[in-house]
Amino acid sequence: MHKWKLFSMKRLSVVLLAAVVVIIAGCQAVSGIDLNRVLLNSLKVQTMESKSSISFQLLRNETADIEDDFSDESDELLSLLSNMTLQVDEAKQQDSEHMSMKGALKFDDLSIGYSLIVDGDTALMTIEGASRPFLFDMTGEDIMDSYLYGTEVEDLGPDTAAASWSDEPSLMDFGYKVLDQVGGYFIDKMPNPKDLSVDPLVTEKVNGESLTLAHLNVKLDAVQAWGWVQSYLDALTSDREGLRTMMKGVVDLVLADPVLRETIALDENGEVYEPTAEEIDTTVDEMIDELTQLNQSMAELAKEDEFSDIINKNSSVKADVYVDAKLDIRKLSLEASYKPDPSMMDEEEMPFEGFVLRFNQERWNVNGDVVADKVSDKQKQSAISLDTLESQQGYQTLRLFNPTSDAYSLLRNKLHIGKQTAVWSVWDDDSPVIVTASGVTIIPLRDAATQFGLNLSVERDGIHLFDPATNASLKVNKGSKKAIVNGKAVNWSYPVTVVDGITYVPARDFAKAFGASVKWYTYGDNIKYSFTIEREVG
């Protein structure tokens, strides 16, 4: 079958179905406000200034008995998620490659200031408490360059493999054209949510300025949202001719655009290929089949006994949107909450009852002249690269931060990035943990040194190890129980031993030398299967 059919038609279908999701709050005009145009405008914003906040609240279940299933660290993580806010005090969007923002990441008792600048090929982030900024290379090849919806570029036809996606119209730009061409069809078929209201004349403050705006308010609980989606699917699947007309319009759109035509409508010989009526019919039938199956699945799920436990009136979506005379969104407030039936959560002994996600934003200078902050050469020279961070041990990253800062407290005491854990299994083929006949656990020395970031060298007088995290040192010799720990001679419980060419040392003695603890994991009748050495350094 032709590649246009295999790839392009499927891509168009994905874009169209994605448009359905994007316009979920759309519908027909209400009180003279063209909601379709409001949403299209919001998608096409190129420049703006704004301030916003996004918060996530995990609703803890204080009565759940989770002590046996959750560690202290897991409980700390849940506490963090219980009240988390990303605050953007100032954002400047100059274009798709230049923007800057500053604000704070907040938890219950922590507040970490930050700033981010995206300046073409470079992004720079500063974090309050860090001794150096962090530099990100933005020139890396995007996944879309190599794989487009799972299809390799080289398989898409002549010239396409040689063309970088960054030199072609972006998928989002193509989505804009599709929405302009066929958005009316989707809007006509989309039912209005029951609780949708518009106040065409209200006064609201945006960035301290009082503006006259239109206020749109919508509320949907989970049951209403479920029914709304089903009624929309019914409307789409019952209108095959409308879908076909819409799809033909998209094909015409592609063929009429020189860049799009050369990108996705060329055959193996480099000639423009127009899908046949049969191919368009097949694609439309496939879309209807997929939508029908989705609707049927939703109907079947609604009949399940547990459905009301998961989808109920306790979960909801609320939105307040304020629009100016140009139908640009200037202020919005969104809240999504999910709260299953308490009996289900209690039965599963879940540590939380649900969650609430909130987003608030004010926008000004929309599509006006906006200049984002720039990354200076001095900032670049002082920054640490992402590649360097990825190669570091956690404690090395911690040392970039002031120990009194909230960022340090978060990373060390909450997220425990300084924790190091070395793990071995008795079933490892290469270097398993071994329990000797005398009951002493021994581990492969070089592997242990690597996992803990220790420097290991073999000298004439023995094997030397140095720990950059704690400045601890160790010297051992093969066949000997004697070890030199931090310059002092000690006797270990078992001699350094070579097994199948691999040097092993007694685990507990090794762990003690570097301030770590050991633990065996067992199953059944106390059968040992996994061994760990763990420590936390900062």
From TrEMBL:
It comes from the Bacteria. Residues 277-304 form a coiled coil. Residues 429-521 form the Copper amine oxidase-like N-terminal domain. The keyword Repeat does not apply. InterPro entries: Cu_amine_oxidase-like_N (IPR012854), Mao_N_sf (IPR036582). Signal peptide: none annotated. SUPFAM superfamilies: Copper amine oxidase, domain N. Keywords: Coiled coil. This is Copper amine oxidase N-terminal domain-containing protein. It comes from Paenibacillus terricola.
